[in-house]
Amino acid sequence: MTCSASDSEKIVINCGGIRHETYRSTLNTLPGTRLSWLTEPDAYSNFDYDPKSDEFFFDRHPATFAFILNYYRTGKLHCPNDVCGPLFEEELAFWGIDETDVEACCWMNYRQHRDAEEALDSFEQPEPDAPEDDPALTGGADGDLKRLCMQEDGRRATRWAVVRPFMWALFEDPYSSKYARDNAATELSFPVCRPSQE
Question: If both were cysteines, with which of 52, 134, 176, 194 could 130 make a disulfide (CB 3.0 to 4.6 Å apart)?
Answer without folding.
Answer: 134
